[in-house]
Amino acid sequence: MSALLLQMMNGLSYGFLLFIITSGITIVFGILGVLNLAHGSLYVLGSFIGYSLIMQAGLPFWVALAAVPLLIAIIGLVLEMVLLRPTYKMGHLSQVLLTFGLAYIFHDIFSMMWGKNILVVTPPEAFNMSVEIAGNAIPAYRLALIVIGILIAIFLWFTQEKTKWGAVIRAGLSDKEMVGGLGVNIHFVFTCVFFLGSLMAGLGGVLGSPILGVYPGMEFQILILSLVVLVVGGLGSVTGTFIASLLVGFVETFSRYLVPELSLIITFALMALVLVVRPQGLTGRRVV
């Protein structure tokens, strides 16, 4: 029972981490219709910069947690304005090829700057301990990650569903021309959405580094898992991303614990099963 509880907590914290990471790519795809395959690279860049600030420069973890996401968001903003924006009228293929090419460029930069070894960030001192739950020692940092994930989920849901800004975003997704005709600068709105998506990647990078570590090539693993969550939850659905992240987090954690050699196969089997039963994803809308 103790091992089961530990794996459940690991799966829950991993699921919330996946949600933080994948919510960024979900927001960008759902609002802009852009599948950013460099999203995993932004996550890893956030992890590497966080490592440099915390482990090499000696800055507090919380300083890196505040600064790194903003820096990654600015980098993402530059990429959107300079490289992606000219491709909006060219179709999805050009965007996929461009962002996938960027991912390989980032990969070489990571290897040159930080090497190829696995680097691990020490959790903040306040959470670098264990908490006893039902006689089991649960890492306090994983519990903190669960709380942060819940708060971010509430914030994204409230922003999207209960604010004027969220209404403008939803309207822009449905009819860009109409929103533009009402005097709203829809391109500025979309740029802000990409800024938010990149910020989520950087936030996930800093939060995930004490648990997953960071190394070149990790960006492609994160990208694959993000796409699985995106497909399972429903393309562009934040609610679906939340549900799918927890589901994939549990499946990935327990499969690695029980049959580690088949964990990746089981994860993809879950995606295939969802596609067979609900091609639009768990909460996605059927496209006619």
Automatic annotation (TrEMBL):
Q: Which InterPro entries match?
A: ABC_transp_permease, BCAA_transport_permease
What is the annotated localization of this protein?
Cell membrane
Give the keywords, sorted.
Amino-acid transport, Cell membrane, Membrane, Transmembrane, Transmembrane helix, Transport
GO MF terms here are:
transmembrane transporter activity
One cellular component term from this protein's GO annotations in UniProt: plasma membrane
**Please, one GO biological process term?**
amino acid transport
Principal localization reads: membrane
Q: How does it sit in the membrane?
A: Multi-pass membrane protein
Give me the segments passing through the membrane.
12-39, 59-84, 96-119, 139-158, 179-202, 222-250, 257-277
Coiled coil, from the record: none
> What family is this?
Belongs to the binding-protein-dependent transport system permease family. LivHM subfamily.
* Name of the protein this chain belongs to: Inner-membrane translocator
